[in-house]
Amino acid sequence: MHVCVSTFACLYYSLSNVSLGVYQPCLPRLHCVCVFVTRLKKKGEMGKLDLIQTLSGHEGRVWNVCWHPQGNTLASCGEDKTIRLWFKEGSKWVNKDILTEGHQRTIREVAWSSCGNYLASASFDATTGIWDKKGGQFDCISSLEGHENEVKSVAWSKSGQLLSTCSRDKSVWIWEVIEDEYECAAVLNAHTQDVKKVVWHPHLDILASASYDNTAKLFKEDVADNDWICIATLSSHTSTVWSLAFDHSGTRLATCSDDCTVKIWQEYLSNNSEGIVTPDNNPVWKCVCTLSGYHTRAIYDISWCHKTHLLATACGDDAIRIFKEAEDSEKHTPTFILLATCANAHTQDVNAVAWNPSVPGLLASASDDGEVKLWQYEDN
Amino acid sequence: MSSHFSSVLQLTDLDDFITPSQECIKPVKIEKTQVGTGAKIKIQEDGGYVQVEEGGRERQLKKVEISLADCLACSGCITSAESVLISQQSQTELTRIFQETKSLHEAGQGDQAKLIIVSLSVQPILSLASYYQLPVDEAAQRLTGYFKQLGANMVVNMNIADDFALLENQVEFIERFRAAENKENGKLPMLTSSCPGWVCYAEKTHGQFILPYIAKTKSPQQIMGSLIKTYLSSQLKRSPNDIYHVTVMPCYDKKLEASRQDFFNEKLQSHDVDCVITGIELQSMLESSGLKLSEVDSASVDWPWSEKKPLDKEIWGHRGSPSGGYADHVFLHAAKELIGQDLSDVHYRTLRNPDFKEVILEKDGNVVLRFAIANGFRNIQNLVQKIKRKKCDYHFVEVMACPSGCINGGAQLRPENASAPKELIAKLETMYADLPALSPAENTMVKELYNHWLGGSTSDKKTAMLHTDYHAVEKMNTALNIKW
Amino acid sequence: MGFDDLENINPKLYRKCNDREVTTEEESDDIYDEFDAREIFDLIRGINDPEHPLTLEELNVVKQNDVCVDNKNNEIKVLFTPTIPHCSMATLIGLSIRVQLLRSLPPRFKICVQIYPGTHASEEAINKQLADKERVAAALENNDLIACINDCIVVD
Questions:
Q1: C-beta of residue C71 within 8 angstroms of C-beta of residue C65
Q2: CA distance B84 to chain A (A)
Q3: Which InterPro entries does the entry link to (chain B) (predicted)?
């Protein structure tokens, strides 16, 4: 038995809305309209994605994959509450380690520190695990508590001095790493909903987050009082922003969303020659390109290769797609071209994609079908 | 709209996307009296619900209401929608009471009217003084004038309750410290209890684990409640439920505190504090009647106590932090009582951020006292985690949910220039530091009350009047209530 | 506190439809037959309402006409109609339908469970939450919630 408690004195409800809803058959979402001028593709603007190997082992959905910064190890995690580490032996990737007993519930994401010595894991059990290989084997050396419920994402800053986590409790946390101790440096309540993803700028201590509130936000430390502040809000998506990725320079950001689009954002510093106004001298991020019409379902992840500059997307329509900025693209009105679509890359939703940091074109993907796959992208 | 709760309560805000009509579900057992079919519920155009029974008889359904006490008992959330509600409730409630009293007086039935007593805490006075660019004492006088004009019978300052709170914290700390030395169960560090945002967070999130560390001493607001509803009411020969007690406070969390069951006299159906009003609400009340505080007629703040007023001022402060100076007072007292050192000053060292400071006392090269002030959620978080991991070596921590403490309470007036909140905090801190400071021991009225009202400093009555308890809130796990 | 009313204490009841007739072709394992709306409806019509001892079919929350199956694209869409526009159980009902379909259907299907347009005050918000597979996955790891859903799904 329950009672619905109204907190508003007046619950106005128009009865005319109730009567006749028009039944809509289930068609692919039609609001994905291509906003680009299509042009003929030039040489080098086509490619293909070849499957190298399927990595089986996880039981149930695989949520995330992450490459070791040297590119020689892949970590994957999922519904089975384990982290699996895959190493290359000869020409084959094999599962050497299974890390268990770190979490009580689904492991949503794993992240290697940039030094490669630590692994962090974000779990639905509201904790973040820190794994260290001191004794030759990975052990969970700390469990960071504080979030009220599911931790959705975890990321290390380039320096390794900062760690960030985000959760359904709507908060983004910044942790300072001091000699294997993790202290909370900030709790950021800028988002109004579930925060899905956090990523650090490739060189600077600037954090980007993506949320169910349809926005992405950027944060940096206010040196005056060691507090972190939101310096930019990226609003344009019309539904959940699932993930985001910086390019190699950190001046561009790609976001992907439940609204079936990818958006490219360009940073404009104060006193920019384009005359874009920058309040408080904080950089402004403007959406300079929208990739719509390509994806037919929610896009769950995006990876921007810092070597090849290729963009890969993981989509709920089971496909992986590869994009690249056209060679004749303008900086402030860039054009991105779809180079390859791998339809049915998996038999169910693709949840994550990650470019290998050292081998150009090597891509890992994770899916609801329980598999991790390795792909090689080749220009045609 | 921005919430006027402390950031700690905002974090527990798990209303998710759900719109206010769905915000809060309170499961209740319903005794089914009839098993019938055919009755329907209709929604009327004005939003009211009507049940149409068989035969066409219509019955207006009562709107379910949720009280702050329900909020406290629920492990769910404090929602932003409720903050709207609370703010409206307090203002309309206050206006209603004042009008009711006025019309009773006008009808010649003044003997049936409630006696309205307003208690002023120092932080909102500073906030209003700064906003309306008035000297502090003048702001207190004009605010008093405003309340009198509305129909208040008495306006008093809360300094006397602050003094009780500081003295009780000192005594409690010494007891805990000695008990810990003798390996009895004196839980250290002792954490202050005057911030209801922090207490609420501890009760809902950390439960029995952290509550034993929190000081048993009531907050100044609730000590004031006991003082008004027990002592002053008997002096005035009025029943407690005959007095309507309003407090002027720096944050909304104080409203939650006032509605705790612990501070409700069931027999007399009387709350120690009936209504909490904050700086921003006062500003909006003034504005809605086209008034500026600087234009309201002044009146002196009342001093209903038998002993002489210790300072010729309307309102004063205490040494130390603008949250009430708990760390300062307890540190100085402990240095004297426990270590035998008479210190004149307390020097804090800023740690990781300006909201986390510590002060230590060394004797023969050993640290004998280690105190800290932790403000804001991130520092509370680190403190709690340190205690959990048994790595916290503090003896005493002054804990406030808001960064910069109570001077920056969630319902203090916002700066007109929205980009300068830090400048405003700095200004208010300076204003607080410039207030005349009184040592609680110098307040002869407090001594008088210990002797004659409480019957000494160890009596049961003292415990009842000045101490309280905390209750871990069980996580509700009825599926109907789970937000996912 | 006067909680003297259940949201919808006496909802209107509807007649259950007849059992589906099974054709000989369907009984034959040699013939590959596709899912149709009736089969999907049969999976969900027996789900109990969280607060009434009645099924979603009896309450007219689900109807066969509001089930759409696209075998070619592996898509199934179910629209449900809460009994009243402020029903706070709507998300739980939607989740129960979703869970029942996730458990019963081959994983290739993309399942979409939504409020029938115009029948709930928080329609958009509820649809968004039901479509968020991460939120659904997390909800299904909550033992109290899953116990409640199992109670709804179990057909006695």
A1: no
A2: 9
A3: Cytosolic_Fe-S_CAF (IPR050340), Fe_hydrogenase (IPR009016), Fe_hydrogenase_lsu_C (IPR004108), Fe_hydrogenase_ssu (IPR003149)
- Name chain B's partners: 3 or more CB pairs within 8 A: A, C
Q: Which residues of C touch A108 (CB under 8 A)?
A: 134
How far is Cα of residue B88 from the mean position of the Cα atoms in its chain? 18
CA B403, B407, B410, B413 dihedral sign is negative
Please state, in angstroms and as integers, the Cα–Cα distance from residue B354 to each residue in A226, B128, B372, B408, following that order: 8, 25, 12, 14
Rounded to two decimals, what is the model's pTM?
0.83
Give the pLDDT band (50/70/90) at residue A137: confident
Vertex A117 angle, CA A113 and A120, to 5°: 50
Of C50, A231, A99, the closest CA to residue B482 belongs to C50
Residues B333, B323: Cα–Cα separation, whole Å: 18
Output the DSSP codes for A121-171. Answer: EEETTS-EEEEE-TTSS-EEEEEE---SS-EEEEEE-TTSSEEEEEETTS-
A363 — phi, psi (to 5°)?
Answer: -125, 140
d(CA B126, CA B146): 16
| Residue B21 to residues B26, B62, B87, C85, Cα–Cα distance (Å) | 13, 15, 18, 10
List residues bridging with B399 in a β-sheet: B374
Which of B166, B254, B179, B249 has its CA nearest to residue B215? B166
Question: In this complex, is the C-beta atom of C7 within 8 Å of any C-beta atom belonging to chain B?
Answer: yes
Listed residue (C127, C151, C144) closest to C77, CA to CA: C127
Regarding the domain with residue range C34-153, which homologous superfamily does it belong to in the CATH classification?
Fe-S cluster assembly (FSCA) (3.30.300.130)
Residue in B with minimal Cα distance to A195: B16
Contact B409, B432 (CB under 8 A): no
Between CA A206 and CA A226 the distance in angstroms is 14
DSSP for B124-178, please give it. HHHHHHHHTT--HHHHHHHHHHHHHHHT-SEEEESHHHHHHHHHHHHHHHHHHHH
Alpha-helical (H) ranges within B61-121 are 68-73, 80-106
| Mean pLDDT, chain A, whole residue set | 88
Token pair listed for A296? 């037919």
Is residue B156 within 8 A of residue B236, CB to CB? The reply is no
Q: Contact, B406 vs B251, CB < 8 A? A: yes
What domains can be seen in chain A, in order of their start residue? 20-379 (2.130.10.10)
C149/B39 CB distance under 8 A: no
Q: Which of A135-144, A303-312, B131-140, C26-35 has the lowest mean pLDDT?
A: C26-35
Instruction: Give the sign of the dihedral formed by CA A96, CA A102, CA A107, CA A110.
Output: negative
The pLDDT tens digits for C112-145 are 999 999 999 889 999 999 999 999 999 999 988 8
Contacts of C79 in chain A (CB under 8 A): 23
A181-188 and A172-178 strand pairing: antiparallel
**A296 in contact with C at a CB cutoff of 8 Å?**
no
Chain B residues within 8 A of A15 when measuring between CB atoms: 43, 45
Length of chain A counted residue by residue: 380
Measured between beta carbons, the chain A residues lying within 8 angstroms of B27 are 1-3
Q: Do B482 and C142 touch (CB under 8 A)?
A: yes
DSSP A245-309: EE-TTSSEEEEEETTS-EEEEEEE-TT-TT----GGG--EEEEEEEE-SS-SS-EEEEEE-TTT-
